[in-house]
Amino acid sequence: MSVIGYIYTATGYQYVGLGKKIYDATWSMRQYFDKIEKKYPEFKINKLAFLGPKEDLMKEENGLLILAAYQSGLFEVLKQQKIIPEQISGFKSGELVAFSNAGGISYEDLIALLFKKREMINSEIKKENFTHLLINSIEISKIEQIINEIKKQIIVEIVSYNSKDSVMIICEKNIKEKLIDIFKKLQGNIIELPYEEFSNFSLLKPVADKLKSYFLNLKTDKPIFRLISQTQGIYYDTVADIKEKIFDYIYKPAKINLVIETMLKNAVNTFVEIGCGSFIGRFIRKADSGKRVLNTHDFSALSTTVKLAN
After folding, report:
1. Domain that holds residue 143
2. What are 101-133's pLDDT values in tens digits?
3. Partner of 6 for a Cys bridge, out of 64, 81, 88, 203, CB 3.0 to 4.6 A?
4. Is there a single domain that holds both residue 112 and residue 133?
């Protein structure tokens, strides 16, 4: 028997044509794109997602909203196929989308929150001064030691713990090459992630505080599935707990490794990565290669997931 866990990805993997085939084939997907198109006509979500241009589509502030529509549509398509998760979690703003899909807040409030987030972050920091690096094949303790030494002089932080030898960091662009050289000398595999969502970054604490204040005025309900906090790797206990902590992801590092561990300990044997990437799936396989990991990055992958998850 399948015990299904959904993990919602973050931005950075969107592509021109994202969701178009599913949009054309189902009202389930179409309604979520069209709601944004109607309420925020200046955003032009359908044109961006389906036609590009790629350079605009890949901007994280655009991907943030396109991905929310895509993930919400995927959730509805899967639900209609009677594929229902027992547990859910999300990476970066994927946690807000997961909460909304689980009935915690309305889709309309979710989109309003994400528009507010992107406006606040654009006014809070100069994003062009920073970049993200994925560091693999080095023990976390060693990475932490190096970062703790370097951050006395420059801005560099771990934004997500992925597995025992993988983290994602954010750093000032002007020291990117120096950091890459340091980690390569330790036999690390380093990948720059130029389109990654800006969150899990301590400088964004003021944004978290403002969003939380706005969020407290929204109508919220208990999610119908067990929701796992990305910053703690444990289940939220109550709606009050969610209200207090869900925006911690804006300024605290994600613990993907702990989220996966919690799901595995609580009987999940089929993971579905909700979004257009397969970033988290590789860490699930690394943690337990015997578990089924499915994805939804395009129409073909979604069709395969529908067949196998049932």
Report:
1. 127-193
2. 999 999 999 999 999 999 999 999 999 999 999
3. 88
4. no
